[in-house]
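User: I'm new to structure prediction. If I give you an amino acid sequence, what do you actually give back? Let's try with this one:
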Amino acid sequence: MSVITVFSGTFCKDEPVVKNVLSATGYKLVTDNDIVAEASRLSGMPANIIMRAFSAKESVYNNFTHEKEVSTTWLKLAVAEKLSGDEILISGFTGRIIPQSISHVLRVCIIADMKFRASHAAAEQNISEKEAVKLIHKQDEDRIAWISNLFKKNDPWDSSLYDLVIPMDKMDMEKAVSLIIDNAGKEVVKPSSRSQKAVDDFLIASKVEMHLAREGHNVDISAKDGAVTLIINKHVLLLSKLEDELKTIARKVPGVRAVETKAGEGYYQTDIYRKYDFKMPSKVLLVDDERDFVQTLSDRLIRRDVGSAVAYDGESAINLVSEDEPEVMILDLKMPGMNGIEVLRRVKQSNPDIEVIILTGHGTEADRELCMRLGAFAFLQKPVDIEVLSDTLKKANDKIRIKKSVK
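Assistant: Good question. You get back a string of structure tokens that encode the predicted 3D arrangement of the chain. For your 407 residues, that looks like this:
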């Protein structure tokens, strides 16, 4: 039988529609949480990090960590493996990952006009309709970003992306359920040898993408009958060297029969291809009220491929820790408001895995002893040689990687 995917706006009565389709067909429900959990198991990445791939808000570190792109890679693999079975209904963001070449998928969009959605949101959330509209617009931002990421389209409800668009403001529940069931049974969306082959190609492409991501690479990939095409969408100075490296990795993936590379549309733009550097931490938070100093330090670290964000006071640092979970913090001691020792104390209580490097021009031996007792990784004095700081960051990164490997 065909696979059904349902992508919807919030407050469109999609949940009861899905529930009734499942009841009538006996299909198994697969949710975004299910796919994220499987992607987390396959990758070893925390589920909450992978879940951020669906968010319009991007981490301040993403240009260096590429967490959103890497998370999407693992989500593709998890979805591809789910398609080896049948009689499933995938509800949520992850069903949109399935390529159009897989024809035994009925792609359903459930949507309604704003008046309908706001009315239901206001009733369900016990808020005013004005507040409801604001909430819906905020939730739609995630859907817009996700569809834009996958299809380069800014309208998540674009009918060209779906086989069936159901306007719940114009259709009753029974009719909506009947439409989905009837269309899922049509010959055009039934499994065929060709569509099953497309599933195999999707799985191979996903595995290749995963192996490349593990080695720090981010390229677009397609596959047909085991022949894999790697599409380079950023400019690179030593193209032939990169192509050889990509091909070597891809050829090792089981099921890959042949590999070719080609330049995509983005190759001729100004972005430079950047391989991930796993030797240095990719998420460093600099906390210092000396704005010129910390901005200069941030620029120097970025030139060394270290992703850095800046906070100018302790409160801002604590907020960034909760939002973006840096791997390493470089922390000054003397700041207005919350001082560095209190920041260190709070960070080690809430996020003990963050390695904290104290970098101060005012620290005493007593300060050093207290900071190390509170869990600081190192205690450095200003001015610091950038090579000394880089070496300390590498050692902190080594400790982080070792801890992650034994979890």
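You can read the tokens as a compact description of the fold. Here is one thing that stands out. Residues 284-405 form a domain with the Rossmann fold fold (CATH 3.40.50.2300).
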